[in-house]
Design a protein that fits this description.
With 108 residues, this protein is α+β, with helices and mostly antiparallel strands. It contains 3 helices and 5 strands; from the N terminus they run E-E-E-E-E-H-H-H. 12% of the residues are buried.
Length: 108
């Protein structure tokens, strides 16, 4: 399994950027998202940027990764890392909401 890691762009040159990953500087391939200005958050997979994200999304992803690490250590109280999901029910993505099912076809 490959996890997307959020990183913040520190500096860039054509095709690559130096990014911060928890205090460590990492060179990231930027060819899929293009050159990004300093301070931009990106989602990386295997040292390649795949998506430009905002700071809120970066924090949510970082919190989820922290929750995984803590769960592997046996921690059970992880709700504080999922504040964006507390009191929120499951939702279908928009592209699935309008898909007719066998039950809805019988009703019409």
């Amino acid at each position: 399994m490959c996890l997307g890691i959020p990183m913040k762009v520190i500096s860039s040159v054509p095709g690559f950027a130096v990014c911060d990953r928890n205090g460590e500087q990492v060179t990231i391939d930027m060819k899929l998202v293009g050159e990004q200005p300093e301070g931009t958050w990106i989602l990386t997979f295997l040292d390649a940027a795949r998506e430009v994200i905002d700071e809120t999304k970066a924090k949510e992803i970082s919190d989820a990764i922290s929750a995984l690490e803590l769960a592997f250590q046996g921690e059970q109280n992880l709700d504080y890392l999922f504040q964006d999901l507390i009191d929120k029910g499951p939702e279908l993505p928009d592209h699935l909401k309008a898909v007719p099912t066998a039950d809805t076809e019988k009703e019409t």
